[in-house]
Design brief:
Two copies of one chain form a homodimer.
Chain A: H1 4-11, H2 15-22, H3 30-43, H4 49-56, E1 61-66, H5 73-92, E2 96-101, H6 115-118, E3 124-128, H7 135-144, E4 148-151, E5 161-165, H8 167-179, E6 186-191, H9 198-214, E7 224-227, H10 233-244, E8 251-254, H11 260-269, E9 279-281, H12 303-320, E10 327-330
Parallel strand pairs in A: 1-2, 1-3, 3-4, 4-5, 5-10, 6-7, 6-8, 8-9
Helix pairs in contact in A: 1-2, 1-3, 5-12, 8-9, 10-11
Chain A binds a DNA duplex (16 and 16 nucleotides) through helix 2 and helix 4.
Chain lengths: 343, 343
DNA sequence: CTGAAAGCGCTTACAG
DNA sequence: CTGAAAGCGCTTACAG
């Protein structure tokens, strides 16, 4: 490997001068600088990361930790869009990105969340949620005061920053959009409690609150279907719910786009087609009309922007050498689509 | 940051003994080992990466370089499935994963492909293709003899290893499957030459060769549509081609799943429905029947396995301290689907 | 403007 | 079985 000494020898100066040129210090004669630069170019020298870290304590790398497996389609989109925003900010700041997949709970008992940080391999961590952040991790984060930003979850810890969408408001607004098109009986499809998905739950709360505020003539909670992720279960749950309801809803708000395809199929089993017989609104913006033959009205989360913001918060904490809880809540815009029609 | 010295002080030994315990050396009294281990646990010590790298020259990190932007849906799947295989092997080998997005050609003139390696931030590189690997990069890779494996492309360099699918064979087999179902006039949809996509081109060659071998009564090249990625262009190209053909094909082989949705729509413009009026076979296995309302016959690439193999080749070269060109060609299995019917 | 010294956290011989 | 010394590649004062 090429070192400062090699460059120094070739240029006929001491390695300290090489260090000065690398770091763009001003106290180097122009002639010397040119000689050194020529030697650097000739040898293809780049300063060893390890040597720099040892001195600066900064490694210009951050870790992205996430429990989302790489191959699960819709969740992959969620993560990739966030990642795209993070990457943009990292690139600007000349910071590298390390990826770690947090194993399923219980799968790998001795998995060490914070190893990269404790090893000083990264300066900070961005955790991309969707599944609740593990309690042990939050505790150690707090104890060690390490720069960390969580996306998509709101840890209570006094030291852990987070970036999230306003799911309650978005749920509320979803009902508002549907209601304004004349629908007076609206159903919600959410997740079973065992998933502990605060995001979908908040959308559900927004759904209920909006219907109360608007004076719906039925009990919102009677029109909530709780189902599972990416599963055929959804289809059956939808069918069963519809059969149990005496008065059928004219619109459905899916708390996540993952439920949309199976909901549509479940409705088809009942002889109902979207949007002719019933309207439908999704959430997330992952269902692409190129692949799904219905242009779904939805609430696309500003994932890219959230990724960027998370990275910015993290960098400000790293470079400021302090850890202070910062939070950001993003509103979710409505995006109209053919699946939502007037009642 | 906690260092070996801190642990040594707490345990009442020298930091060298701590180093021994960390590295599991045998020449440490059991009693001492326990004392040291207790101190390590108490302080939450982990050996600094930088110190280790400086000594061993090994950093237990590899870089994944790819020109695929994070947000492009189908290409995202391609990359993520490969990544999933790589990650699996990395986890087993306790190696970390660094991600780098190679900018569009010309976008960032001073982008330095090999910086992470020259900085000794990674031990080797896996390049995930889909767009041809940049010439400058290949040259520098060869010059520096750095451990590198390319996935999805076959660089000529004597030193760069690669892992790829047998696209010619797969293209040939696609025609074989279609032909065996009685189709005697089959069209191909590929990419315009300007994309330099060797993979799709090889499938095209397999398509042509198969038709020749089977004694097709027409010139295969007359039934090749060349289109662009992810674009509405495809729809128009399909329509135009169909209008120009006097004898219509009874089946179409899409050289990539990206073309499938728009091809289906283009056919619809002509009043043709799949598979009732015309059969269709895709390639890649990205079109999920949950989201696309047609179960497409296709050739799913063994991406996960390719990722694993690439990582294994890379690790063997890194730990062996040699760089030798190794290559692996994966066959692509056929996966039947409703879109391909008997003629 | 340039160089010798010390030290960052670690490991690898070498002594004892 | 344990420790003192040297060195990995770098930067940061300090001297000149």
């Amino acid at each position: 490997m090429v070192t400062q000494k090699d460059v120094a020898n070739l240029a006929g100066v001491s390695f300290i001068t090489v260090s000065r040129v690398i770091n763009g210090e001003s106290n180097v004669k122009e002639e010397t600088r040119l000689k050194v630069q020529a030697a650097i170019d000739q040898l293809g020298y780049a300063p060893s990361f390890a040597g720099q870290v040892l001195n600066s304590g900064r490694c210009n790398t951050i870790a992205i930790l996430t429990p989302i497996p790489f191959y699960q389609s819709l969740r992959t989109f969620y993560m990739m869009r966030i990642l795209s925003g993070i990457e943009e900010v990292c690139r600007k700041n000349k910071v590298d990105l390390m990826m770690g997949i947090v194993p399923e709970a219980g799968t790998e008992p001795d998995y060490d969340y914070l190893r990269p940080y404790r090893q000083k391999k990264v300066d900070g961590i961005i955790y991309i949620g969707l599944r609740q952040i593990p309690r042990e991790m939050i505790e150690e984060l707090g104890k060690r005061k390490l720069p960390c930003v969580v996306i998509g979850d709101r840890p209570k810890s006094k030291l852990v920053s987070w970036v999230d969408t306003n799911n309650f408001e978005a749920g509320y607004n979803a009902v508002k959009e549907i209601w304004s098109r004349g629908h007076r009986r609206i159903a919600f499809i959410g997740l079973k409690d065992e998933f502990f998905n605060a995001n979908v739950m908040d959308r559900e709360k927004g759904f209920e609150k909006a219907l109360e505020d608007f004076g719906a003539k039925y009990k919102p909670s009677d029109y909530i279907i709780k189902t599972a992720f990416d599963s055929e279960e959804t289809r059956q749950d939808v069918k069963a719910a519809f059969l149990s309801w005496k008065k059928k809803p004219t619109a459905i708000f899916c708390g996540a786009d993952s439920f949309v395809p199976e909901t549509v199929k479940g409705l088809k089993l009942l002889g109902l087609s979207v949007p002719k017989d019933i309207s439908l609104v999704g959430f997330d913006g992952f269902i692409n009309s190129t692949y799904f033959n219905l242009n779904v009205a939805t609430f696309p989360q500003p994932l890219n922007e959230m990724g960027r913001r998370a990275a910015e918060i993290l960098f400000s904490q790293i470079s400021g050498n302090f850890v202070k809880k910062e939070t950001a809540v993003f509103p979710v815009p409505f995006c109209a689509g053919d699946s939502l029609q007037n009642a």
